[in-house]
């Protein structure tokens, strides 16, 4: 697989920090110290600061005068709401796609979706969280493009980056076992097949099932969403609660 190319040192730096967030190496509310990262990446403080500003715009970090930069922590409710809104919009997107695709355009779209899904599988099996998140996002964006609805794409816009920590949840979930990797990619393939067959109802049903599965696994992994660096889990209201010893759920 060809390594991604970056136009600037800031882009490269942001990618390294983003990877650490998605892989869970920096937990929610974990501090990101400019001096530490400058030494780790062997770059000056300037690209670190610029990278953190970019990651703040994407929603991955929050920067304050008092605490500096830290990884954004979301409650399970925020992430669950994001998934549910996505479910409603994605169902409509796949419905439009099936209705509006035909002939060569349908064939090209199906080919593209299968290629993306295969790259997603390779990223998951190869342990590459950044690429896995990107390919999963590309898969769903390709369906929106096929839907050919600027209004729907505009409605979806804020959701693409609304709760980026969901990317970490996705990664933690599917990497738990080879079965989950096969299941996630298999759900994508079923959606692709429904699009290829022109089966609107099946495409909608399978899309809803796929996202419902994501919500369910999200609920099962709720303590991981808002965990503070000291090992406590943040309740949706902002308070913290200790995890029960020995009860960590495995995916």
Notes on the structure:
The chain folds into two domains: 65 residues, Winged helix-like DNA-binding domain superfamily/Winged helix DNA-binding domain (Arc Repressor Mutant, subunit A, Orthogonal Bundle); 149 residues, GntR ligand-binding domain-like (Four Helix Bundle (Hemerythrin (Met), subunit A), Up-down Bundle), CATH 1.20.120.530. The protein is elongated and about 55 Å long. By secondary structure, it is mainly alpha-helical. Helix content is 66%, strand content 6%. The strands form two sheets. The protein has a three-stranded antiparallel β-sheet with strand order 1-3-2. The two termini are 28 Å apart.
Task: Give the name of the CATH architecture of the largest domain.
Answer: Up-down Bundle
| Multimeric status of the protein | single chain
Q: Report the mean per-residue pLDDT as an integer.
A: 79
Q: Write down how many β-strands occur, each being a DSSP E stretch of 2 or more residues.
A: 5
Could you list the spans in which at least 5 consecutive residues all have pLDDT below 50?
225-251
Shape: elongated
N- to C-terminal separation? 28 Å
In which order are the strands of the major sheet placed?
Answer: 1-3-2
Short summary of the structure?
With 251 residues, this protein is mainly α. The chain is 66% helix and 6% strand.
């Amino acid at each position: 697989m060809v390594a991604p190319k970056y136009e600037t040192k800031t882009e490269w730096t942001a990618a390294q920090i983003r990877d650490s967030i998605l892989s869970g190496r920096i937990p929610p509310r974990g501090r990101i110290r400019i001096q530490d990262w400058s030494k780790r990446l062997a770059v000056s403080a300037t690209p670190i600061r610029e990278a953190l500003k970019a990651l703040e715009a994407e929603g991955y970090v929050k920067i304050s005068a008092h605490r500096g930069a830290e990884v954004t922590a979301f409650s399970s409710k925020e992430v669950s709401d994001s998934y549910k809104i996505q479910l409603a919009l994605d169902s409509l997107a796949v419905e439009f796609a099936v209705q509006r695709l035909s002939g060569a355009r349908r064939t090209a779209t199906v080919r593209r979706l299968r290629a993306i899904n295969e790259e997603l599988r390779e990223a998951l099996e190869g342990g590459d969280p950044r690429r896995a998140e990107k390919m999963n996002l590309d898969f769903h964006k390709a369906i929106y493009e096929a839907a050919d609805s600027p209004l729907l794409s505009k409605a979806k816009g804020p959701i693409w980056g609304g709760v980026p920590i969901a990317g970490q949840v996705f990664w933690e979930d599917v990497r738990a076992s080879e079965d989950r990797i096969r299941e996630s990619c298999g759900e994508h393939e079923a959606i692709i097949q429904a699009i290829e067959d022109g089966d609107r109802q099946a495409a909608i049903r399978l899309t809803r099932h796929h996202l419902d599965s994501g919500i369910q696994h999200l609920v099962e992994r709720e303590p991981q969403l808002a965990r503070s660096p000291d090992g406590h889990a943040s309740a949706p209201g902002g308070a913290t609660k200790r995890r029960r010893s020995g009860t960590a759920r495995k995916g």
